[in-house]
Amino acid sequence: EVQLVQSGAEVKKPGESLKISCKGSGYSFTSYWIGWVRQMPGKGLEWMGIIYPGDSDTRYSPSFQGQVTISADKSISTAYLQWSSLKASDTAMYYCARPGSSGDTEYFQHWGQGTLVTVSS
Amino acid sequence: SYVLTQPPSVSVAPGKTARITCGGNNIGSKSVHWYQQKPGQAPVLVIYYDSDRPSGIPERFSGSNSGNTATLTISRVEAGDEADYYCQVWDSSSDQGVFGGGTKLTVL
Fold first, then answer.
1. Among candidates A47, A59, A108 on the partner chain, residue whose Cβ is nearest the Cβ of B98
2. Tens of pLDDT, residues A43-78
3. Which of A79, B16, B87, B102 has the fewest CB atoms below 10 angstroms from its CB?
4. Closest to A45 (Cβ–Cβ): which among B45, B86, B90?
5. Contact A95 B94 (CB under 8 A)
């Protein structure tokens, strides 16, 4: 069974750094893209970016390019989403998700449970 | 970047058919995927590649895509279908995914 298990909720202050994680299991981690989706409170889904753990090829939405860093450690089947300096506007639920087919980037079939990030002074 | 437009809300009586649209420039040339999200839960894929259903998704859910509009159709709507629905495409010209703004389906 494919599982994506995300790290727990975080409460941070503006300007702090943060790295949240998403551990994949039940499949070949290096053969599937894995992406991140933001959902701000009461708002819709936003596609942030996607990484192929096999070679670390990464694509970002222009809205998030330079604002976050997506990475992966294939040795522990874990993808990451990282901020160097958080803002209050980064407060949101963040989901990791995986497409249904190996090599596909089109859609997300499997989703993590979400990580709630709260940034407040 | 590519823009997807959904109506903010759709209402339907139980047992009737709900149609949720997703508009985009020549969207018929792209593959459209649909997600259902209930409050406090992660999204669930209900339709992919315009009209394919993942295992476990009822046949009541179907999709179509042509011209400038893609449509998610939910037949014989049930109270449990009440949720937010999002369309999504992969924009190959910019190598990124794009979500529509979402549609809240209300079952009257």
1. A47
2. 999 999 999 999 999 999 999 999 999 999 999 999
3. B16
4. B86
5. no
Beta carbons of B35 and A35 less than 8 Å apart: no
Exposed (0-12), middle (13-18) or buried (19+): which is B23, by Cβ within 10 Å?
middle
A111 CB-contact burial (10 Å; exposed 0-12 / middle 13-18 / buried 19+): buried
Distance CA A35, CA A37 (A): 7
Q: Which pairs from A110-113 meet CB under 8 Å and 24+ separation? A: A110/A2, A110/A3, A110/A4, A111/A4, A111/B42, A111/B43, A111/B44, A112/A4, A112/A5, A112/A6, A112/A22, A112/B42, A113/A4, A113/A5, A113/A6, A113/B42
Query: B62 pLDDT exceeds 90?
Result: yes
List of E strands, B1-108: 9-12, 18-23, 32-37, 44-47, 61-66, 69-74, 83-91, 96-99, 103-107
